[in-house]
Amino acid sequence: MPQIALITGATAGFGKAAAQRFVKEGWNVVLTGRRKDRLDALVTELGGPKRAHALCFDIRDEAATEAALAELPAEFRAITALVNNAGLALGTAPAQESDLNQWKTMIDTNVTGLVTITRLLLDTLIAEKGIIVNLASIASNWPYPGGNVYGATKAFVRQFSLGLRSDLSAKGVRVTSIEPGMAESEFTLVRTGGNQEAYDKLYAGANPLQPEDIAETIYWVASLPKHVNINSVEIMPVSQSWAPFQIFRG
Ligand code: NDP
Ligand code: 8X3
């Protein structure tokens, strides 16, 4: 029987690339996201309903998440890998100029949504001795101007991953926090409200990470022998590194 990976946020970017990678390696996948047309197209691309099953729901909605999981056909229920990838950043303004609704959307999606689906699937993951792969960020580890709430949600994801590790090691469930730096995807269009100029400027000449690079890492941690746990992986493009601390001189 093929192993099953449930990948949240599979309509674009890392999630879509991860779904393609897992299926290429013989796994079957459950794909989630809000854009049904993209989910349906990906199911077809991945080989149809025997290989992939789509669940269309908003991860911020607990009842919808629970109902979607309850609808899973028997052959997609034995989930051995949960890839908590759905997430977003909204805005790059300093805190004092930020929109509170954007902050709440990031918290509801990146924190509450991720925690909810994880809790709903924990019994299954324990029964399967599975793995949870959480998409954190370099923003979990390194603050930057305008990163305020986005970075805080990703710091939560990293710390939640390590806490889950502590609780689940006796159950044989592995947990990994993946912390990517600059990667080219719709992420920047979402963050900037669809600003193509900002997108082009950010990635120009930077040779950023690509979704396939992250999919490779997700698949790698999931496919290691069951006694090996990668706790966290921080990944940047070679072009990205650290800068000196900023000094405000009043
Ligand atoms: P994309 O914008 O390309 O993809 C984001 C995915 O999340 C989409 O499939 C989207 O699906 C899904 N999603 C967003 N909000 C919701 C929601 N409310 N309900 C259900 N699904 C939702 O971004 P990336 O692939 O780049 O990012 C994936 C993850 O990696 C995110 O958690 C992001 O924070 C993180 N990350 C990204 C980095 C980057 O530079 N790109 C670097 C480090 C981490 P849909 O819109 O169809 O619902
Ligand atoms: C995305 C990476 O540096 O834009 O998580 O926060 S960054």
TrEMBL record:
SUPFAM superfamilies: NAD(P)-binding Rossmann-fold domains. The keyword Nuclease does not apply. Keywords: NADP, Oxidoreductase. It catalyses: L-serine + NADP(+) = aminoacetaldehyde + CO2 + NADPH. Its EC number is 1.1.1.276. It holds the Pfam family adh_short. Gene3D superfamilies: NAD(P)-binding Rossmann-like Domain. InterPro entries: KR_dom, NAD(P)-bd_dom_sf, Sc_DH/Rdtase_CS, SDR_fam. GO terms for molecular function: serine 3-dehydrogenase activity. It comes from the Bacteria. Coiled coil: none annotated. Residues 3-185 form the Ketoreductase domain. It is an enzyme of class 1 (oxidoreductase). Catalyzes the oxidation of the hydroxyl group of serine to form 2-aminomalonate semialdehyde which is spontaneously converted into 2-aminoacetaldehyde and CO(2). Also acts on D-serine, L-glycerate, D-glycerate and 2-methyl-DL-serine. Does not act on O-methyl-DL-serine and L-threonine. Homotetramer. Belongs to the short-chain dehydrogenases/reductases (SDR) family. This is Serine 3-dehydrogenase. It comes from Neorhizobium alkalisoli.
